[in-house]
Amino acid sequence: MIMRVPPGAPHVLRFLLALSVPVVFIYICSYFVNIPTWALILLQVVSVPAYVAARLTNRHYRQVRAAARYGAVLPPAHNGKQFANFDVLVKFQNIYKNGYPGDGLTEVHAELGGTFNLAILWDTTVITNDANIIKAVLATDFSNFIKGKHFQAFMYSVLGTGVFNADVVIESVTSISSKDMQVSLRNHSSSQSFVTDASMNHDKDEAIIKMKQRLQEGHAVDFQDLISRFTLDSATEFLFGVSVNSQKSPLPYPPRSAAAAHQQENAAFADQFVRAFSRVQDTIAARGRLGYIWPFLEIFSDKTADDMKVVDSLLNPILEKALEHARNEKSAGLRKDNEVEDVHEDDTFLDHLVRCTTDKQVLHDEILNLLIAGRDTTAGTLTFSIYFLCMYPDILARLRREILEAVGPYRRPDYDDIKDMKYLRAFLNEVMRLYPAVPFNVRYIRYSIDDTTVPNPDPNGKPFFVPAGTPVTYSVLLMHRRTDYWGEDAHVFDPDRFLDDRIQLLLANPFIFLPFNAGPRICLGQQFAYNEMSFFLIRLLQNFSSMDLRPESQDPATLPPKEWSKFPGRKGIDKMFPKSHLTAYANGGMWVSMKEADVTDTA
Ligand code: HEM
């Protein structure tokens, strides 16, 4: 058995080695200068904070000088009340658990503008919701902004060298397979029939049948759980050619019901996978929030290890099978290596990937990354779609009218139907505007370039200076809600903004709407996602004519705190508790009831 070194250990070791420099220096000096032992110890103890303070001061003045050389200024800094902004660290940890997305940042943006520096325990991050800066990071100045080694370190135990964790476009040598994967997915996704087949022709009504059964029993349904299984089944079918059939296991009952207690004991394997998969994402997101402190909490153990065992027990047998199939084909002379550019008729995505590499670890990482990329994002977006349909019955009625006019009450939609459904597309865009699947994201300035600048939002201001290695954290969620970009009604849910004159705001600056990112690393599954989500919503609204939130079925600890209703904007309007790890989700699920459609009921 291979013993894995806990992920924190090497980082902590490097950190301690760096701190030991002054201690060792003074020790060596003591050979040449006679110092009493007590003074030697005292000097060594004092030397560590003095060394750190000297380095930080030097860093600050180096940055000020470098900024001046660039004709730039440092972004405004947000300062807390305690030493090294310790209070800000505590505040953000608390907000992550109990706050609304963007709490803490929204107030600072209101005070300092769209871009500011935040140094927690001297670890500086640039935080932005400014469209021009995000455009520079993702597109116009793309080659200066990478995921980088710090990001890769805290993601590694889950994402490995997969596409989400690799700087593949510009550093193709670091992860040849990830580049191959991008090519493979582009080939597959650009094949319209493939997208249509994978997302539509499978027996996808299982989710709806299950929901109907549970609703007929008189219970509410956790739509988030249901859709997570639906998207897991479609993603595994898309990737492996076989669904893991997570929809076959029973839906959860409301947490406090008697049926729920019995069900807990019988949690099916797919359920365990779904939970473990969500927990590992929580763990790596928590590492990201802690910055350079996280390795200290994982010196002796890897917090993702147990959950990754569950995840791997599902993935590994599927990979073994695909590799065996590839070996058999090769020995029968049916396959050549490196056929990545070819798309074979009946290939699954995994078959296609196995043509590029037979390294099991690489395949494992790429497939796992794609499960997160393709599944959690669509599941989250559909969950928030149902939330908005419950909140706004008029919008539901209009969407349903469009669906019934285009497809009727029974027929399965095809690609052409979906293409022409303008209100459906506007509805999905509006859901992703207010709740983008990846609400917060980060890129690091490349160490190999010295430093860089990003545009100052003030057209008369000097550009902002950003030193090499600095993380730039950007929030698409906060950008999508800026009233200066979207108008005074930016917090109102209104799909018509993508259809009426307000679309001019977006046409004037397309970078204010980035649910799929932008630039060379734009989402490769965008078209697939629109198709899959449209297909599901059409089938759902053919079957149900109205929906309601059922907060009384949910664990009360996961409901939004009552005092939120006093806040302005979405925080005051929302009736669920949005959260995010790598992707956005609803805390405690999305418990709903729905009314089955009558054949004569045309909305
Ligand atoms: C509502 C649905 C979706 C949304 C909102 C979404 C959003 C995103 C975003 C924001 C990124 C950039 C992440 C980053 O590197 O920082 C991304 C990347 C990616 N997405 Fe999606 N995604 C969705 C669905 C899908 C689906 C269904 C697939 C696959 C079938 C997919 C495949 C990918 C891949 C492979 C990447 C990495 C691209 C690269 O780094 O070169 N996504 N997506």
Concise synopsis of the structure shown:
The chain is built from 24 helices and 13 strands. The chain is an alpha+beta fold and 603 residues long. The strands form 4 sheets. A 6-stranded mixed sheet has the order 1-2-3-9-6-4, sandwiched between helices.
Itemize the secondary structure elements and their pairings:
Layout: H1 8-29, H2 37-69, E1 77-78, H3 86-98, H4 105-112, E2 115-120, E3 123-128, H5 131-140, E4 145-146, H6 148-159, H7 176-190, H8 192-201, H9 206-216, E5 221-222, H10 223-240, H11 258-265, H12 269-290, H13 294-297, H14 305-331, H15 349-354, H16 360-391, H17 393-407, H18 415-419, H19 422-434, E6 440-445, E7 451-454, E8 464-467, E9 471-475, H20 476-480, H21 483-486, H22 503-508, H23 526-543, E10 544-549, H24 569-573, E11 578-580, E12 584-586, E13 591-596
The structure holds protoporphyrin IX containing FE.
Describe the protein's architecture and organization.
With 603 residues, the protein is α+β, with helices and mostly antiparallel strands. The protein has two domains: 1-69, no CATH class; 164-437 and 515-596, Cytochrome p450 (Orthogonal Bundle), CATH 1.10.630. Helix content is 53%, strand content 9%. It has 24 helices and 13 strands. It has helices spanning 8-29, 37-69, 86-98, 105-112, 131-140, 148-159, 176-190, 192-201, 206-216, 223-240, 258-265, 269-290, 294-297, 305-331, 349-354, 360-391, 393-407, 415-419, 422-434, 476-480, 483-486, 503-508, 526-543, 569-573, and strands at residues 77-78, 115-120, 123-128, 145-146, 221-222, 440-445, 451-454, 464-467, 471-475, 544-549, 578-580, 584-586, 591-596. A six-stranded mixed beta sheet has the order 1-2-3-9-6-4, with helices on both faces. Strands 5-13-10 form a three-stranded antiparallel beta sheet. It has a two-stranded antiparallel sheet with strand order 7-8. A hairpin with a 2-residue loop joins strand 2 (115-120) and strand 3. The longest helix is centred in the first third of the chain and has 33 residues, at 37-69. The radius of gyration is 26 Å and the shape is globular. The termini are far apart. Mean pLDDT is 86; it is low at 170-176 and 190-202. Protoporphyrin IX containing FE binds at residues 163-164, 182, 185, 370, 373-374, 377-378, 381, 432, 437-438, 441, 515-517, 521, 523-525, 528-529. Heme binds at residue 523. One of its GO terms (molecular function) is iron ion binding. It comes from Antrodiella citrinella. It holds the Pfam family p450. Its cofactor is heme.
